[in-house]
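Hey, resending since the last one bounced:
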Amino acid sequence: MTEPGQNGKDYLPETVADSVLAAPLVRYAAKNQGQYVSAKNEPAFVLTTWPWRETSLIVSLFTRRHGRITAVARGAKRPAGRFRGLIDPFLPLLINFSGRSEVKTLTGVRWMGGLLPITGEGLLTAFYLNELVFRLSPAEEAQTELFDAYTRTLTMVARGNFEETECAMREFEVDLLRLCGWGQQLPDGSEGFTGLVRDGEIIEAYASDVCDRERLYSPGAIRAVLTRDFSDASVLKDARDLLKEIIEFYALGGRMLSSRRTVTRWRQFSR
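The structure tokens again:
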């Protein structure tokens, strides 16, 4: 397991730190802000954490019935604290929380079990999955289908089957993009077309249309993405690259996700 407080630093930008931590924590002091919310035995996974004060953590959690929430885990850094060893990514948890502000108070955590440990390159893939949810999923909105897809995808990653994992990851990326409002579909009767990505959308194009740093994608890769069908292994790599362009437009305005950069570097050094 990773050390609490260390697992999210690589992909927490300053703007997110400002919005997720600074403003909500100011409001956290005002206990009467907003509608009171509480939950018991809520299925959840830790997305990332940040140290808060000397003994506590701020935790971003992905829950089944409340979506992505932020909570304070008081005393989580104490050696004998009740949360010690539980506030880590990729552990299926049942949590209790309550509060009125944007930052809730975590009052109970229990490990559910049932998921194999994630190791090796699978960890890099799983952290990428967490960054996608952290950056793109709406806060405090129930996303039961996406949560179930996230759980299935983590299970595939833990099994270590490369092709199975690649298909599951691409399906999850499409599901998350559609949740964010990206709704492109394959035109009726079309078997796909050559195209490229501009402003987060796939447009039909030819080699003569390609500008600097743009890439032309095959009909098979575009068809796989627009139909969410990644059964053709020959187009998986191109479909991954195509989705990467769309995701990075929505998540970072075209810049590479931090976890994606880490995966790329790891693969280069491991060859």
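Residues 9-111 form a domain with the OB fold (Dihydrolipoamide Acetyltransferase, E2P) fold (CATH 2.40.50.140).

Sorry for the duplicate.
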